[in-house]
Amino acid sequence: MTKELLSSCRYEYRWADGVQIKKPIEVSAPKYVEYLMDWIEGQLDNESLFPQKLGTPFPPNFKDVVNTIFKRLFRVYAHIYHSHFQKIVSLKEEAHLNTCFKHFILFTNEFGLIDKKELAPLQELIESIIVPY
Q1: Which tens digits make up the pLDDT trace of 1-57?
Q2: Do 115 and 2 meet the contact criterion of CB atoms below 8 Å apart?
Q3: Per its UniProt record, what SUPFAM superfamilies does this chain match (predicted)?
């Protein structure tokens, strides 16, 4: 999701998992989140990607898989902040959302999990979280 996409009047969500849905299809935001959570669950349950036995090595593509998971999760945060933040504020839950997002961004930043250009839609918020020392 790019800055241009977020600032446009119409939002477009496309999903492809590379297995069941090979060519990206246009879906609603709730459907994108549903597909994403199911896909992440499948990745986490896949012992060839996330070994359960102590001493079993992670696969060579492990970081790529984790990068994709985090990139897609970031898109959900971007959607929440852009489309639902006023509702979050009305529920007085913005501190909780901001804390979760801060932990997400700090972890992402620490391990270089998302390319900087992917973070552009929430760059101002991210810059307020990551204060240079």
Answers
A1: 333 334 444 568 899 988 899 999 999 999 999 999 999 999 999 999 999 999 999
A2: no
A3: Mob1/phocein
> Which positions ≥6 away from 34 have C-beta within 8 Å?
none
Rounded CA gap, 35 and 65, in Å? 16
In the DSSP assignment, the letter for residue 114 is S
Structural domains of the chain, count: 1
Spell out the long-range contacts of 104-111 with Cβ–Cβ below 8 A and sequence spacing 24 or more: 104/70, 104/73, 104/74, 104/77, 105/129, 105/130, 106/130, 108/70, 108/74
Q: What CATH number does residue 49 fall under?
A: 1.20.140.30
pLDDT level of residue 132 (50, 70, 90 thresholds): low
The domain in which residue 67 lies consists of 3-129
Dmax over Cα atoms in the chain, in whole Å? 50
Number of CB atoms found within 10 A of residue 13's CB: 20
Q: Give dist(CA 73, CA 37) in Å, integer.
A: 9
